[in-house]
Write a structure and sequence with these properties.
By secondary structure, this protein is an alpha/beta fold. Helices cover 36% and strands 19% of the residues. Among the domains are: 42 residues, Monooxygenase, CATH 1.20.1280; 162 residues. The chain contains 14 helices and 13 strands. Strands 1-2-3-4-5-6-7-8-9-10-11-12-13 form a 13-stranded mixed sheet. Strand 2, helix 7 and strand 3 form a beta-alpha-beta unit. Helix 3 packs antiparallel against helix 4, helix 11 runs parallel beside helix 12 and helix 12 packs parallel to helix 13. It comes from Roridomyces roridus. This is F-box domain-containing protein. InterPro entries: F-box-like_dom_sf, LRR_dom_sf.
Length: 382
């Protein structure tokens, strides 16, 4: 951006008839380098632009821990800058070789009183780091995304953090260890909060916390399930209420003979879901994909409210691609309530209810319509 004297004079004239809120909105559309240039034009633009530069922060603990330290010092000396932060992402927080003081970092985060989005990835063995969550109190926090190795101790620490943040509406809790043995869920009575997160609208993650959540306002859930934890899905009372539209997404890593048991359980206890997404994890051979399709075909008529169905397997060159159209044709023939269907990377939508005319459309549009577009894709952590 080239700033001539004439251009600078024109910008000064703009400030006389545009309110600061409008100027801030316009500056917000600029790229960050241009925002930094605008901040040097005048004190007014500096005051308007600086909060925008601090609004979204991404910290990478591995590449430049020295920058994190400088940021902590800056926010400590200028708390008003921390107050401008709305989104904070902390990456690669194993921090094994970092000299950063954890307490200093979390005290800095605590200055971000208007923080709305927190993305936090913990390392594999830092119980001391998880315990630092106890110092955080973020009154405007609405979205939490945490990836950490789950254990009894860590789950309790996370639950205590959740109990102090009833404003959360979107929660993502993933286990980095990919273990099929679930840790003991935290005791709700010990927490003194029988219903965590009364405003929760979307949950994505493992099953350990389901029993403690208040799910009255829950609209969608993506859960990583296997044979040993599928029964915990019953904590979602919405699955059994025919009056509530509900979108359920399952990341399934079960073996072939267990897939049928999972679907049989859903057909018995989760009859009234309106959108069902099944995402198969890991490499699968053609006969395994065929067995999965056959199991869905068998239990599909037992879901009378199901309007959106998706079977997905994002493995490269998945055998699902070869049978996607055949599976779709079979399912719409036995489930008249279906309005949209997605198999692999292909999706179809019913456009004429009377004559059952279907057209192919994009998978992104399908997931937006079905209520799955808000989920984050974290295959490696499930």
């Amino acid at each position: 951006m080239v700033s001539t004297r004439r251009a600078q004079k024109a910008r000064m004239l703009i400030t006389r008839w545009l309110p600061n809120e409008v100027l801030t909105h316009i500056i917000g559309y600029l790229y960050r380098p241009d925002q930094a240039t605008v901040a040097r034009i005048s004190r007014l633009f500096h005051g308007l632009t600086l909060p925008l530069l601090n609004r979204t922060i991404v910290l990478d603990m591995v590449d430049r821990p020295d920058i994190i330290w400088e940021l902590c010092l800056t926010f400590t000396d200028h708390p008003e800058r921390a107050d401008a932060v709305r989104s904070l992402t902390i990456m690669n927080s194993s921090w094994g070789e970092s000299n950063l003081d954890f307490s200093q970092l979390f005290e800095t985060i605590n200055l971000m009183k208007q923080l709305e989005y927190l993305h936090f990835e913990d390392g594999r063995s830092h119980d001391a780091l998880i315990s630092r969550l106890s110092v955080l109190s973020l009154p405007d926090l609405s979205t939490l995304h945490m990836i950490f190795p789950q254990s009894d101790l860590r789950n309790t620490a996370v639950s205590e953090f959740l109990s102090r943040h009833p404003t959360l509406t979107h929660v993502h809790l993933w286990d980095i260890d990919d273990s099929e043995s679930d840790p003991t869920p935290p005791d709700r009575e010990l927490l003194g909060t029988p219903n965590l997160l009364p405003n929760l609208q979307l949950y994505q993650g493992t099953t350990q916390f389901l029993d403690a959540f208040c799910t009255r306002s829950l609209e969608a859930a993506r859960i990583c399930v296997h044979q040993g934890n599928i029964h915990k899905v019953l904590a979602l009372e919405e699955l059994r209420d025919p009056a509530l539209p509900f979108a359920l997404s399952l990341d399934i890593r079960v073996k072939d003979d267990e897939m049928r048991e999972v679907l049989e359980f859903l057909a018995e206890h989760a009859t009234y879901i309106t959108s069902l997404q099944i995402r198969i994890l890991g490499r699968r051979f053609p006969d395994e994909i065929t067995a999965c399709i056959d199991s869905i075909t068998q239990f599909l008529p037992q879901f009378p409210n199901l309007g959106n169905l998706e079977l997905n397997h994002d493995f490269y060159n998945s055998p699902l691609l070869a049978v996607s159209e055949e599976a779709w044709q079979t399912w719409i023939g036995i489930a008249p309530t279906l309005r949209a269907c997605c198999v692999g990377k292909r999706a179809w939508q019913k456009v004429d209810q009377l004559e059952s005319q279907w057209v192919e459309y994009t998978r992104n549009k399908f997931e937006a319509q079905a209520g799955f577009s808000s989920f984050l894709l974290v295959y490696q952590y499930c």
